[in-house]
Design brief:
This protein is mostly helical and about 240 residues long. About 75% of the residues lie in helices and about 0% in strands. The model is unreliable at about 235-240 (pLDDT under 50).
């Protein structure tokens, strides 16, 4: 039988075929972890190295195929999310935390747009919002005048991003959607590690490595989820439904 008759197999094969386009990402990951051995102090070279893996993922999304057509809308939203994520990386690296948080907040808005609002899966959202509300309540006394407003808004956005990715994965149950949801979970874990070190004061062993490994893995999974965008797969899915 043709792969088009089995969407899950088609998506797995499609993901495996993306290897050559992901080589720049792997190279820049090796460069970052090889050359940046300690917490950066705002130097230009560490900022560039930190942003390079995300730019490599931008290259991947463009190289695998993208346009303004409806079939590529999810790729476009994720591309914009990656661009604003790289801006957030740069701002955090030069110690402009509030502005970096705003840039990442915008990135999550684009990711939410990419994941969509169907199916809604209210129960998943409710559980996540209860959990994040408890977290915000716990840390709000440790926030200054700017962050006491910005952190709850950011937490709401990243929680919404996680909710929409999980809802999409539960509904579709295909490889790329599930992989993307894992990426969203890793994104939340990465930001939670930052919050624990910054606001709670818990000393984590190799904190930067934990934060950056989970962060890059998250962005990789989200970017790879665009591998099935385009008219070819959507036509095969419509035939399968008929």
């Amino acid at each position: 039988a043709a792969l088009s008759e089995f969407p899950a197999l088609h998506q797995t094969a499609k993901a495996k075929s993306q290897g050559p386009k992901l080589v720049p990402f792997l190279v820049t990951i090796v460069l970052y972890f090889s050359l940046v051995r300690k917490d950066p102090q705002g130097e230009l070279w560490t900022t560039v190295l930190k942003c390079l893996p995300i730019f490599a993922l931008v290259f991947y999304v463009v190289a695998k195929g993208i346009s303004l057509k409806k079939e590529y809308r999810r790729s476009l939203w994720i591309l914009l999310g990656l661009v604003f994520s790289s801006g957030g990386d740069a701002l955090l690296n030069i110690n402009l935390f509030p502005f970096g948080m705003i840039s990442f907040g915008v990135a999550h808005v684009f990711y939410i747009s990419a994941f969509g609002w169907k199916p809604i899966k209210w129960f998943i959202g409710l559980l996540l919002y209860v959990a994040v509300s408890l977290f915000v309540y716990f840390v709000h006394t440790k926030l200054d005048e700017i962050l006491i407003i910005g952190v709850p808004i950011y937490c709401f956005l990243i929680t919404t991003m996680l909710w929409r990715s999980l809802a999409r994965a539960v509904d579709s149950r295909n490889f790329l959607a599930v992989f993307c949801a894992i990426g969203a979970i890793l994104f939340v874990i990465s930001d939670a590690l930052i919050a624990v070190t910054m606001f709670v004061g818990v000393p984590l062993p190799c904190a930067r490595l934990q934060i950056m490994i989970t962060y890059y893995a998250a962005q990789f999974a989200i970017a790879l989820s665009t591998a099935d965008d385009g008219p070819a797969l959507q036509r095969s899915l419509r035939k399968k439904i008929k």
